[in-house]
Amino acid sequence: MTEYKVLFVCTGNICRSPSADGILRQKLVEQQLDHLILTDSVGTHSYHVGEPPTPTGLSLAAKRGYDYSDLRARQVQQSDFVDFDLILAMDYGHLDIIRNNCPEQYLHKIAMFLDFSEQSNKEVNDPYYGGPSDYDAMLDVIEIGVTDLVTHLKQVLHE
User: Fold this and answer.
1) Nearest CA-CA partner of 7 in 135, 105, 131, 94
2) What average pLDDT does range 88-115 have in this prediction?
3) What mean pLDDT do residues 98-114 have?
4) With 80 as the cut, is the pLDDT of residue 94 above it?
């Protein structure tokens, strides 16, 4: 099978989407699926293009065993709609933006990140203007969401 590609989308690509990207990368290594699934993350806006994820997010994620300090923010591009198999929005605002910019033939690729999770709230709250507790809460939600997403991806790979 060729690689299956997953793209996470948030506002500036320095908090939520790189966290989901980094956590999924680690879970894929642990599940020995990293050779089958490629991950990336983008922002809907260009506010932080070229910047690393936030220091608070990186340090709290590192305490949980995740390192995604290599990631750099980029803005979603038209080619992403073609290149990725699954494009996951972190909140409904992101979902609206990417749907409005997506060519019709690729709309089926777009979903909410937490659509694959049993969590009742389908949005990942933005910790950017908050403190460490907001980042920890974000990481808690993303860890559960990624675990559920891995279950979904395993099903996709076996179809």
Assistant:
1) 94
2) 98
3) 98
4) yes
Q: Which of 77, 106, 78, 109 is nearest to 4 (CA)?
A: 109
The values of phi and psi at residue 4, to 5°, are -100, 130
> Would the pTM of this model clear 0.85, i.e. be above it?
yes
Domain ranges (residues) in the chain = 4-157
CB 70 within 8 A of CB 93: no
The residues carrying an active-site annotation are 10, 16, 126
Which CATH number is 4-157's, of 3.90.1150.10, 3.40.50.2300, 3.40.50.720, 3.90.1010.10? 3.40.50.2300
* Mean confidence (pLDDT) of the chain: 97
